[in-house]
Amino acid sequence: MASDEHYKQIIRKEMAKLKKPVKLKVFTSQRIQPDGTKIRACMDCGQFMSLLRIYEENSNGMLTIEELSIDNNPEFAKRYDISRVPTILFIDNNGKEVIRYLAAPQGAEIQPFIQSIFTFAGAPNYYESTIKQNLNRINPTTIKVMMTETCPYCPQVITIANMFAIASGGKIRTVIIDINANPDIGQYYDAAGVPYTIFNDQKTLTGMVGPNEILRALIGGNIHVSY
Amino acid sequence: MFPTDSLGFDPEKIYDIIVLGGGPTAIGCAIYAARFAMDVLIVGKTFGGLIATTHIVENYPGITSVSGPGFVEMFREHMQSLNISYISDEIGSIEQKDDYFVLQSFFQQFKARTICIATGSERRKLGIPGEEEFTGRGVSYCATCDGPFFKDKVVCVVGGSDSAAKEALFLAQNAKKVYIIYRGKEIRAEPINKKRVYENEKIEIIYKTMIQERGEGYRI
Question: Does pTM surpass 0.90?
Fold first, then answer.
Protein backbone atom coordinates (compact mmCIF):
# COMPACT_ATOMS: atom_id res chain seq x y z
CA MET A 1 0.00 0.00 0.00
CA ALA A 2 1.21 3.46 -0.95
CA SER A 3 4.61 1.92 -1.63
CA ASP A 4 4.92 4.19 -4.60
CA GLU A 5 7.17 7.02 -3.50
CA HIS A 6 5.37 9.41 -5.79
CA TYR A 7 2.06 8.96 -3.96
CA LYS A 8 3.79 9.28 -0.61
CA GLN A 9 5.19 12.60 -1.76
CA ILE A 10 1.70 13.80 -2.68
CA ILE A 11 0.42 12.86 0.77
CA ARG A 12 3.35 14.62 2.46
CA LYS A 13 2.97 17.76 0.38
CA GLU A 14 -0.80 18.08 0.75
CA MET A 15 -1.14 17.05 4.38
CA ALA A 16 1.46 19.64 5.41
CA LYS A 17 -1.11 22.28 4.38
CA LEU A 18 -3.72 21.14 6.93
CA LYS A 19 -4.23 24.00 9.38
CA LYS A 20 -7.09 22.79 11.57
CA PRO A 21 -7.29 19.65 13.69
CA VAL A 22 -9.19 16.59 12.48
CA LYS A 23 -9.68 13.31 14.28
CA LEU A 24 -10.57 10.10 12.47
CA LYS A 25 -11.44 6.79 14.04
CA VAL A 26 -10.20 3.58 12.48
CA PHE A 27 -11.53 0.24 13.52
CA THR A 28 -9.24 -2.74 13.35
CA SER A 29 -9.16 -6.07 15.09
CA GLN A 30 -6.50 -6.72 17.74
CA ARG A 31 -5.58 -9.82 19.64
CA ILE A 32 -3.67 -9.92 22.90
CA GLN A 33 -0.83 -12.41 22.89
CA PRO A 34 0.16 -14.49 25.94
CA ASP A 35 2.95 -12.03 26.76
CA GLY A 36 0.44 -9.19 26.86
CA THR A 37 1.46 -7.53 23.61
CA LYS A 38 -1.18 -6.71 21.04
CA ILE A 39 -1.16 -7.82 17.44
CA ARG A 40 -3.58 -6.93 14.72
CA ALA A 41 -5.73 -9.89 13.84
CA CYS A 42 -7.10 -8.69 10.52
CA MET A 43 -4.94 -9.40 7.53
CA ASP A 44 -5.03 -5.97 5.88
CA CYS A 45 -5.01 -3.86 9.03
CA GLY A 46 -1.24 -3.57 9.38
CA GLN A 47 -0.69 -2.13 5.91
CA PHE A 48 -3.83 -0.07 6.21
CA MET A 49 -2.64 1.57 9.43
CA SER A 50 0.85 2.14 7.97
CA LEU A 51 -0.78 4.02 5.12
CA LEU A 52 -2.89 6.15 7.46
CA ARG A 53 0.12 6.93 9.60
CA ILE A 54 1.73 8.58 6.55
CA TYR A 55 -1.21 11.00 6.49
CA GLU A 56 -1.00 11.57 10.23
CA GLU A 57 2.77 11.97 10.47
CA ASN A 58 2.88 14.59 7.75
CA SER A 59 0.04 16.75 9.05
CA ASN A 60 2.08 18.78 11.57
CA GLY A 61 0.00 17.24 14.32
CA MET A 62 -3.30 18.37 12.80
CA LEU A 63 -4.60 14.91 11.92
CA THR A 64 -5.11 12.34 14.66
CA ILE A 65 -5.83 8.76 13.71
CA GLU A 66 -7.36 6.89 16.61
CA GLU A 67 -7.12 3.15 16.18
CA LEU A 68 -9.83 1.22 17.97
CA SER A 69 -10.06 -2.51 18.19
CA ILE A 70 -13.52 -3.95 17.77
CA ASP A 71 -12.48 -6.55 20.33
CA ASN A 72 -11.63 -3.98 22.99
CA ASN A 73 -14.38 -1.50 22.10
CA PRO A 74 -17.45 -3.63 21.44
CA GLU A 75 -19.88 -0.95 22.64
CA PHE A 76 -18.46 1.63 20.32
CA ALA A 77 -18.29 -0.85 17.46
CA LYS A 78 -21.92 -1.71 18.06
CA ARG A 79 -22.97 1.92 18.25
CA TYR A 80 -21.46 2.61 14.83
CA ASP A 81 -22.45 -0.73 13.37
CA ILE A 82 -18.91 -1.80 12.54
CA SER A 83 -19.30 -5.09 10.76
CA ARG A 84 -15.92 -5.29 9.04
CA VAL A 85 -12.37 -4.09 9.52
CA PRO A 86 -10.54 -1.97 8.68
CA THR A 87 -13.14 0.82 8.68
CA ILE A 88 -12.43 4.56 8.76
CA LEU A 89 -15.05 6.87 10.27
CA PHE A 90 -15.42 10.64 10.01
CA ILE A 91 -17.58 11.53 13.03
CA ASP A 92 -18.85 15.09 13.55
CA ASN A 93 -18.93 17.05 16.81
CA ASN A 94 -22.40 15.68 17.59
CA GLY A 95 -21.14 12.13 17.38
CA LYS A 96 -22.85 11.57 14.06
CA GLU A 97 -21.11 9.54 11.40
CA VAL A 98 -20.61 11.55 8.20
CA ILE A 99 -18.26 9.45 6.08
CA ARG A 100 -17.30 5.78 6.26
CA TYR A 101 -14.45 4.27 4.28
CA LEU A 102 -14.35 0.58 3.54
CA ALA A 103 -11.46 1.32 1.23
CA ALA A 104 -7.80 2.20 1.51
CA PRO A 105 -7.08 5.84 0.58
CA GLN A 106 -4.21 5.06 -1.75
CA GLY A 107 -3.33 5.77 -5.38
CA ALA A 108 -6.04 7.82 -7.09
CA GLU A 109 -8.12 7.69 -3.90
CA ILE A 110 -5.68 9.96 -2.08
CA GLN A 111 -7.21 13.08 -3.59
CA PRO A 112 -10.84 12.58 -2.43
CA PHE A 113 -9.63 11.42 0.99
CA ILE A 114 -7.47 14.51 1.51
CA GLN A 115 -10.21 16.74 0.14
CA SER A 116 -12.61 15.21 2.66
CA ILE A 117 -10.19 15.69 5.56
CA PHE A 118 -9.67 19.37 4.67
CA THR A 119 -13.37 20.08 4.18
CA PHE A 120 -14.19 18.20 7.37
CA ALA A 121 -11.70 20.52 9.07
CA GLY A 122 -13.57 23.55 7.76
CA ALA A 123 -12.00 24.33 4.39
CA PRO A 124 -14.45 25.95 1.92
CA ASN A 125 -16.98 23.50 0.51
CA TYR A 126 -17.93 24.44 -3.02
CA TYR A 127 -21.32 22.67 -2.84
CA GLU A 128 -22.31 23.87 0.63
CA SER A 129 -24.54 26.81 -0.29
CA THR A 130 -26.79 24.84 -2.65
CA ILE A 131 -26.98 21.83 -0.33
CA LYS A 132 -28.01 24.10 2.56
CA GLN A 133 -30.59 25.92 0.44
CA ASN A 134 -32.20 22.59 -0.47
CA LEU A 135 -31.66 20.82 2.83
CA ASN A 136 -35.33 20.73 3.79
CA ARG A 137 -36.06 18.82 0.59
CA ILE A 138 -33.40 16.19 1.19
CA ASN A 139 -34.44 13.12 3.14
CA PRO A 140 -31.89 11.45 5.40
CA THR A 141 -29.80 9.55 2.90
CA THR A 142 -26.95 7.11 2.91
CA ILE A 143 -24.99 7.34 -0.33
CA LYS A 144 -22.90 4.26 -1.03
CA VAL A 145 -20.21 4.69 -3.66
CA MET A 146 -18.76 1.45 -4.98
CA MET A 147 -15.27 1.91 -6.39
CA THR A 148 -12.19 0.03 -7.50
CA GLU A 149 -8.59 1.16 -7.37
CA THR A 150 -8.24 1.28 -11.16
CA CYS A 151 -11.41 3.31 -11.77
CA PRO A 152 -10.43 6.78 -13.03
CA TYR A 153 -13.87 8.31 -12.46
CA CYS A 154 -14.38 7.07 -8.90
CA PRO A 155 -12.31 9.76 -7.13
CA GLN A 156 -14.50 12.49 -8.60
CA VAL A 157 -17.79 10.89 -7.60
CA ILE A 158 -16.42 10.15 -4.12
CA THR A 159 -15.26 13.76 -3.73
CA ILE A 160 -18.69 15.14 -4.64
CA ALA A 161 -20.58 12.67 -2.44
CA ASN A 162 -18.32 13.37 0.55
CA MET A 163 -18.58 17.14 0.04
CA PHE A 164 -22.38 16.83 -0.03
CA ALA A 165 -22.33 14.79 3.18
CA ILE A 166 -20.12 17.29 5.00
CA ALA A 167 -22.34 20.18 3.84
CA SER A 168 -25.56 18.47 4.90
CA GLY A 169 -25.08 18.72 8.64
CA GLY A 170 -25.76 15.05 9.20
CA LYS A 171 -28.60 14.49 6.74
CA ILE A 172 -26.38 12.73 4.22
CA ARG A 173 -23.93 10.01 5.08
CA THR A 174 -21.53 8.40 2.61
CA VAL A 175 -20.04 4.93 2.58
CA ILE A 176 -17.08 4.46 0.25
CA ILE A 177 -16.66 0.80 -0.65
CA ASP A 178 -13.76 -0.79 -2.50
CA ILE A 179 -15.50 -3.79 -4.00
CA ASN A 180 -12.27 -5.60 -4.70
CA ALA A 181 -11.60 -5.55 -0.96
CA ASN A 182 -15.28 -6.19 -0.18
CA PRO A 183 -16.50 -8.45 -3.02
CA ASP A 184 -19.49 -9.65 -1.02
CA ILE A 185 -20.89 -6.11 -0.94
CA GLY A 186 -20.40 -5.79 -4.69
CA GLN A 187 -22.19 -9.07 -5.23
CA TYR A 188 -25.00 -8.12 -2.88
CA TYR A 189 -25.72 -5.00 -4.95
CA ASP A 190 -25.00 -6.81 -8.23
CA ALA A 191 -22.39 -4.19 -9.12
CA ALA A 192 -20.74 -4.85 -12.47
CA GLY A 193 -19.47 -1.36 -13.15
CA VAL A 194 -17.96 1.48 -11.17
CA PRO A 195 -18.46 4.09 -9.95
CA TYR A 196 -21.79 2.71 -8.79
CA THR A 197 -23.72 5.08 -6.55
CA ILE A 198 -26.61 3.86 -4.42
CA PHE A 199 -29.04 6.08 -2.52
CA ASN A 200 -30.68 4.51 0.54
CA ASP A 201 -30.34 1.10 -1.11
CA GLN A 202 -32.95 2.11 -3.67
CA LYS A 203 -32.05 4.54 -6.41
CA THR A 204 -28.80 3.87 -8.30
CA LEU A 205 -26.54 5.79 -10.66
CA THR A 206 -23.99 3.99 -12.79
CA GLY A 207 -20.76 5.39 -14.16
CA MET A 208 -19.38 8.89 -13.97
CA VAL A 209 -21.92 11.29 -12.54
CA GLY A 210 -21.50 14.96 -11.73
CA PRO A 211 -22.89 17.01 -8.86
CA ASN A 212 -26.10 17.74 -10.79
CA GLU A 213 -27.05 14.08 -11.12
CA ILE A 214 -26.29 13.36 -7.47
CA LEU A 215 -28.29 16.39 -6.32
CA ARG A 216 -31.22 15.40 -8.51
CA ALA A 217 -31.11 11.88 -7.11
CA LEU A 218 -31.29 13.36 -3.61
CA ILE A 219 -34.02 15.90 -4.32
CA GLY A 220 -35.99 14.47 -7.17
CA GLY A 221 -37.43 17.69 -8.55
CA ASN A 222 -36.30 21.19 -9.33
CA ILE A 223 -33.27 22.51 -7.57
CA HIS A 224 -33.63 25.81 -5.70
CA VAL A 225 -30.64 28.05 -5.83
CA SER A 226 -29.85 31.71 -5.37
CA TYR A 227 -26.36 33.12 -5.54
CA MET B 1 -8.40 18.77 -7.25
CA PHE B 2 -6.84 19.07 -3.88
CA PRO B 3 -8.67 21.47 -1.55
CA THR B 4 -5.84 23.93 -1.44
CA ASP B 5 -5.94 24.24 -5.22
CA SER B 6 -9.52 25.51 -5.30
CA LEU B 7 -9.15 27.98 -2.45
CA GLY B 8 -8.22 30.63 -4.98
CA PHE B 9 -11.66 30.45 -6.55
CA ASP B 10 -13.47 33.74 -6.12
CA PRO B 11 -17.17 33.95 -7.07
CA GLU B 12 -17.01 37.74 -7.29
CA LYS B 13 -14.03 37.86 -9.59
CA ILE B 14 -14.44 38.44 -13.31
CA TYR B 15 -12.02 35.91 -14.71
CA ASP B 16 -10.09 36.70 -17.86
CA ILE B 17 -11.00 33.25 -19.10
CA ILE B 18 -13.05 30.31 -17.87
CA VAL B 19 -12.39 27.03 -19.60
CA LEU B 20 -15.25 24.55 -19.77
CA GLY B 21 -14.16 20.92 -19.89
CA GLY B 22 -11.73 18.72 -18.01
CA GLY B 23 -9.67 17.00 -20.67
CA PRO B 24 -6.20 17.69 -22.08
CA THR B 25 -7.45 20.44 -24.41
CA ALA B 26 -9.17 22.32 -21.60
CA ILE B 27 -6.15 21.95 -19.35
CA GLY B 28 -3.77 22.92 -22.16
CA CYS B 29 -5.83 26.06 -22.78
CA ALA B 30 -5.73 26.95 -19.08
CA ILE B 31 -1.96 26.41 -18.96
CA TYR B 32 -1.46 28.80 -21.88
CA ALA B 33 -3.74 31.37 -20.25
CA ALA B 34 -1.98 31.09 -16.88
CA ARG B 35 1.40 31.53 -18.53
CA PHE B 36 0.05 34.72 -20.13
CA ALA B 37 -0.71 35.94 -16.59
CA MET B 38 -4.45 35.67 -17.12
CA ASP B 39 -6.90 34.87 -14.32
CA VAL B 40 -8.10 31.43 -15.38
CA LEU B 41 -10.46 28.84 -13.95
CA ILE B 42 -11.44 25.42 -15.27
CA VAL B 43 -14.98 24.13 -14.75
CA GLY B 44 -15.41 20.53 -15.85
CA LYS B 45 -17.34 17.40 -15.13
CA THR B 46 -14.60 14.83 -15.64
CA PHE B 47 -11.08 15.75 -14.64
CA GLY B 48 -8.71 14.40 -17.26
CA GLY B 49 -11.47 13.66 -19.75
CA LEU B 50 -11.65 10.42 -21.68
CA ILE B 51 -7.88 9.97 -21.60
CA ALA B 52 -8.22 9.22 -17.88
CA THR B 53 -9.86 5.94 -18.85
CA THR B 54 -7.12 4.94 -21.28
CA HIS B 55 -5.09 1.96 -20.20
CA ILE B 56 -1.78 3.13 -21.67
CA VAL B 57 -0.85 6.31 -23.54
CA GLU B 58 2.09 5.70 -25.87
CA ASN B 59 1.67 8.28 -28.60
CA TYR B 60 2.28 11.54 -26.79
CA PRO B 61 5.59 13.24 -27.65
CA GLY B 62 8.11 13.03 -24.87
CA ILE B 63 6.33 10.29 -22.98
CA THR B 64 7.21 6.76 -23.99
CA SER B 65 4.47 5.11 -21.99
CA VAL B 66 2.19 6.21 -19.18
CA SER B 67 -1.14 5.00 -17.83
CA GLY B 68 -4.17 7.21 -18.42
CA PRO B 69 -4.61 7.97 -14.70
CA GLY B 70 -0.83 8.56 -14.43
CA PHE B 71 -1.03 11.01 -17.30
CA VAL B 72 -3.89 12.84 -15.58
CA GLU B 73 -1.81 13.00 -12.40
CA MET B 74 0.82 14.84 -14.47
CA PHE B 75 -1.88 17.29 -15.60
CA ARG B 76 -2.71 17.92 -11.97
CA GLU B 77 0.90 18.62 -11.06
CA HIS B 78 1.31 20.94 -14.03
CA MET B 79 -1.81 22.85 -13.00
CA GLN B 80 -0.65 23.06 -9.39
CA SER B 81 2.64 24.55 -10.50
CA LEU B 82 0.71 27.38 -12.17
CA ASN B 83 -1.97 27.73 -9.45
CA ILE B 84 -4.77 26.82 -11.84
CA SER B 85 -8.02 25.96 -10.05
CA TYR B 86 -10.39 23.24 -11.20
CA ILE B 87 -14.03 23.07 -10.14
CA SER B 88 -16.09 19.93 -10.65
CA ASP B 89 -19.37 21.33 -11.91
CA GLU B 90 -21.59 21.66 -14.96
CA ILE B 91 -22.65 24.97 -16.43
CA GLY B 92 -26.37 25.23 -17.22
CA SER B 93 -26.55 28.66 -18.80
CA ILE B 94 -24.40 31.47 -20.15
CA GLU B 95 -25.55 35.08 -20.40
CA GLN B 96 -23.74 38.09 -21.74
CA LYS B 97 -23.59 41.18 -19.53
CA ASP B 98 -21.82 44.33 -20.69
CA ASP B 99 -18.27 43.20 -21.37
CA TYR B 100 -18.36 39.85 -19.59
CA PHE B 101 -20.30 36.60 -19.44
CA VAL B 102 -22.20 35.13 -16.50
CA LEU B 103 -22.10 31.37 -16.26
CA GLN B 104 -24.52 29.62 -13.95
CA SER B 105 -24.61 26.17 -12.46
CA PHE B 106 -26.72 24.75 -9.66
CA PHE B 107 -23.88 25.49 -7.28
CA GLN B 108 -22.25 28.71 -8.31
CA GLN B 109 -22.24 31.72 -10.56
CA PHE B 110 -19.09 32.59 -12.45
CA LYS B 111 -18.04 35.67 -14.38
CA ALA B 112 -15.58 35.68 -17.25
CA ARG B 113 -14.57 37.97 -20.08
CA THR B 114 -13.82 35.01 -22.31
CA ILE B 115 -15.11 31.44 -22.33
CA CYS B 116 -13.25 28.59 -23.93
CA ILE B 117 -15.46 25.58 -24.59
CA ALA B 118 -13.38 22.40 -24.64
CA THR B 119 -15.99 19.90 -23.53
CA GLY B 120 -14.72 17.22 -25.91
CA SER B 121 -16.71 14.24 -26.99
CA GLU B 122 -18.83 11.50 -25.51
CA ARG B 123 -18.68 7.84 -26.30
CA ARG B 124 -20.88 6.77 -29.16
CA LYS B 125 -23.44 4.25 -28.02
CA LEU B 126 -24.73 1.31 -29.98
CA GLY B 127 -28.38 2.26 -29.61
CA ILE B 128 -29.52 -1.34 -29.36
CA PRO B 129 -32.23 -2.83 -27.19
CA GLY B 130 -30.90 -3.73 -23.76
CA GLU B 131 -27.93 -1.38 -23.88
CA GLU B 132 -29.41 1.32 -21.65
CA GLU B 133 -31.16 -1.16 -19.39
CA PHE B 134 -28.04 -3.17 -18.65
CA THR B 135 -25.52 -0.34 -18.40
CA GLY B 136 -23.61 -1.05 -15.20
CA ARG B 137 -24.89 -4.60 -15.14
CA GLY B 138 -22.67 -6.03 -17.83
CA VAL B 139 -22.73 -3.25 -20.40
CA SER B 140 -19.70 -1.05 -19.80
CA TYR B 141 -17.94 1.82 -21.53
CA CYS B 142 -14.71 1.79 -19.54
CA ALA B 143 -12.40 -1.23 -19.38
CA THR B 144 -10.07 0.33 -16.83
CA CYS B 145 -13.07 1.04 -14.59
CA ASP B 146 -14.88 -2.25 -14.92
CA GLY B 147 -12.25 -4.73 -16.15
CA PRO B 148 -11.84 -6.35 -12.72
CA PHE B 149 -15.49 -7.45 -12.84
CA PHE B 150 -14.78 -9.63 -15.86
CA LYS B 151 -12.02 -11.75 -14.40
CA ASP B 152 -12.16 -15.22 -15.98
CA LYS B 153 -15.25 -14.24 -17.95
CA VAL B 154 -15.92 -14.16 -21.68
CA VAL B 155 -16.34 -10.55 -22.79
CA CYS B 156 -16.73 -8.73 -26.07
CA VAL B 157 -15.63 -5.32 -27.22
CA VAL B 158 -17.76 -3.72 -29.91
CA GLY B 159 -15.87 -1.63 -32.45
CA GLY B 160 -12.68 -1.67 -34.45
CA SER B 161 -10.87 1.54 -33.53
CA ASP B 162 -7.60 1.94 -31.69
CA SER B 163 -9.57 2.49 -28.49
CA ALA B 164 -11.39 -0.82 -29.02
CA ALA B 165 -8.07 -2.62 -29.51
CA LYS B 166 -6.60 -1.08 -26.36
CA GLU B 167 -9.70 -1.90 -24.31
CA ALA B 168 -9.53 -5.50 -25.57
CA LEU B 169 -5.85 -5.75 -24.63
CA PHE B 170 -6.58 -4.43 -21.15
CA LEU B 171 -9.51 -6.79 -20.65
CA ALA B 172 -7.46 -9.75 -21.86
CA GLN B 173 -5.25 -9.37 -18.79
CA ASN B 174 -8.06 -10.72 -16.63
CA ALA B 175 -10.78 -12.14 -18.84
CA LYS B 176 -10.89 -15.72 -20.03
CA LYS B 177 -11.67 -14.74 -23.61
CA VAL B 178 -12.18 -11.43 -25.41
CA TYR B 179 -14.07 -11.10 -28.66
CA ILE B 180 -13.78 -7.95 -30.73
CA ILE B 181 -16.95 -7.59 -32.77
CA TYR B 182 -16.49 -5.22 -35.66
CA ARG B 183 -18.71 -4.37 -38.60
CA GLY B 184 -15.74 -3.72 -40.93
CA LYS B 185 -13.23 -5.98 -42.62
CA GLU B 186 -10.09 -4.96 -40.73
CA ILE B 187 -9.72 -3.28 -37.35
CA ARG B 188 -8.45 0.31 -37.59
CA ALA B 189 -6.11 0.27 -34.60
CA GLU B 190 -2.59 1.69 -34.75
CA PRO B 191 -0.36 -1.01 -36.26
CA ILE B 192 1.45 -1.52 -32.94
CA ASN B 193 -1.82 -2.20 -31.14
CA LYS B 194 -3.19 -4.24 -34.03
CA LYS B 195 -0.12 -6.46 -33.80
CA ARG B 196 -0.60 -6.84 -30.04
CA VAL B 197 -4.23 -7.84 -30.60
CA TYR B 198 -3.29 -10.40 -33.25
CA GLU B 199 -0.61 -11.86 -31.03
CA ASN B 200 -2.84 -12.12 -27.98
CA GLU B 201 -4.16 -15.64 -27.74
CA LYS B 202 -7.13 -14.59 -25.66
CA ILE B 203 -8.46 -12.16 -28.27
CA GLU B 204 -10.51 -13.22 -31.27
CA ILE B 205 -11.91 -10.82 -33.84
CA ILE B 206 -15.31 -11.32 -35.41
CA TYR B 207 -15.56 -9.20 -38.55
CA LYS B 208 -18.51 -7.94 -40.58
CA THR B 209 -20.86 -8.33 -37.64
CA MET B 210 -23.15 -5.85 -35.96
CA ILE B 211 -24.70 -6.25 -32.54
CA GLN B 212 -28.47 -6.11 -32.70
CA GLU B 213 -29.53 -6.76 -29.17
CA ARG B 214 -28.21 -7.66 -25.77
CA GLY B 215 -29.52 -11.17 -25.31
CA GLU B 216 -30.98 -12.50 -22.10
CA GLY B 217 -28.42 -14.22 -19.92
CA TYR B 218 -25.48 -12.53 -21.60
CA ARG B 219 -23.55 -9.43 -20.77
CA ILE B 220 -22.08 -7.13 -23.36
Answer: no
